[in-house]
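Narrative of accomplishments. A recurring question from our advisory board has been how the design workflow behaves on a single, concrete structure rather than in aggregate. To address it, we present the structure tokens for one chain from the evaluation set, followed by the sequence designed for it. No filtering or post-editing was applied between the two.
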């Protein structure tokens, strides 16, 4: 609304009486009341997180995860993650971030994600959107899958890719809590550094030949 202050001032000029002042005062008092309640709840949450502060601080080393989201994750799965989830795959499945698998006669068909913890899903998706704004492994993972499913002009491709990042985040969370070690950044070049040069060369040659080009390779000087 800050960009519309001038328009709001013009709209209110000459028509702001005692009744309007009373209504504005009531709304402002209500906002103050809500802010006081939020502050009180934040204090209660902080007090309850005291035994889990070390785990929370570890989770905040991962991209996209802040103190509040880390506290929300711990409230859903606990700090001793191995007690209920022996491995990251089971945690991802319980969360509902594992893709479904429908296989018939040797052919796999894509299906919807499994149902899981909706609260944790929404938290991880928000964290994923935050994580892909920063250079690193998760941003590269997002870009890789967006391009795989149609590019940045496709809203469906971006939604599917962010679920992949959210799945990667829950796996990262499991490893952080299970090992007690902070997040280790794999780097933005993680996928390109793992490419087999010979295989990638053959793939690019085949692509160029399919487009009607004759390819001749010469070693670099």
């Amino acid at each position: 609304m800050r960009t519309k202050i001038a328009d709001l001032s013009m709209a209110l000029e000459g028509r702001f009486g005692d009744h309007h002042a009373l209504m504005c005062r009531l709304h402002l008092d209500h906002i103050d009341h809500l802010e006081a309640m939020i502050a009180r709840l934040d204090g209660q949450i902080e007090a309850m997180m005291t035994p889990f502060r070390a785990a929370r601080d570890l989770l905040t080393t991962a991209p996209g995860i802040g103190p509040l989201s880390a506290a929300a994750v711990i409230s859903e799965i606990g700090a001793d993650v191995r007690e209920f989830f022996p491995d990251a795959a089971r945690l991802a499945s319980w969360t509902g971030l594992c893709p479904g698998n429908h296989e018939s006669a040797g052919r796999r068909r894509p299906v919807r994600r499994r149902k899981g913890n909706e609260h944790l899903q929404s938290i991880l998706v928000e964290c994923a959107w935050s994580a892909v704004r920063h250079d690193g492994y998760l941003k590269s993972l997002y870009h890789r899958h967006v391009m795989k499913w149609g590019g940045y002009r496709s809203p469906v491709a971006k939604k599917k890719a962010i679920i992949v990042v959210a799945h990667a985040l829950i796996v990262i969370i499991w490893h952080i809590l299970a090992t007690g070690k902070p997040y280790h950044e794999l780097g933005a070049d993680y996928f390109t550094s793992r490419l087999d040069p010979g295989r990638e060369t053959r793939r690019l040659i085949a692509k160029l030949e399919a487009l009607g080009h004759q390819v001749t390779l010469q070693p670099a000087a």
